[in-house]
């Protein structure tokens, strides 16, 4: 299927690994010509950028950025310029219950995922609105639907981003812009391993039993990052031109079936 993304430009946050790097690869394979890659790890970004250029011939630019810093976020938006696509993917909200996650940890996690997404969207949306063209896809997370108390800061933050996506996307077509969200379930990244180790330690006092939690996911495994990236690429494309203000869940059916995460 031709997604009609040839020659486009994209800004992707959290692009140094995991879902973000997979999204960059999927977009490059679909012909996106310029990829602006943002994350805190500059060396990892440079490696991803070099691989994308070598494999696909696209222009890939590394932007080492901490989205928690307003001045760095503004510089990223300025340096990336008038992009066609914005993929908000950065985030590392800590796992834990209400008693385990203190006020500082809540604010630290939300300042990247929740406010980083909102603030960067504000910057980029204004440019897209002026051109009456653009697509924003927020990579959120299925915890915003299922609301596990053992991930309360993330559950609450994801639910907030779901509301943000629906609220903005419900009227953004008036400005020529589409805004969508994707809720991945468990994905095979370093982050999911860390979360499952924390949960195993909390439940059983043995972090190494995280493997048992991984096997309890739908289909007996977490999703691969590319399985999420392919859906993001479709949502960002002209093939999804009638979609805005909606959120697609990709979790192996867990949210629908009530299966444990």
Automatic annotation (TrEMBL):
SMART domains: PKS_KR. Coiled coil: none annotated. GO terms for molecular function: oxidoreductase activity. InterPro entries: KR_dom, NAD(P)-bd_dom_sf, SDR_DHRS6-like, SDR_fam. It comes from the Bacteria. Keywords: NAD, Oxidoreductase. Residues 8-182 form the Ketoreductase domain. Belongs to the short-chain dehydrogenases/reductases (SDR) family. PANTHER family: DEHYDROGENASE_REDUCTASE SDR FAMILY MEMBER 6 (PTHR43477:SF4), DIHYDROANTICAPSIN 7-DEHYDROGENASE (PTHR43477). This is SDR family NAD(P)-dependent oxidoreductase.
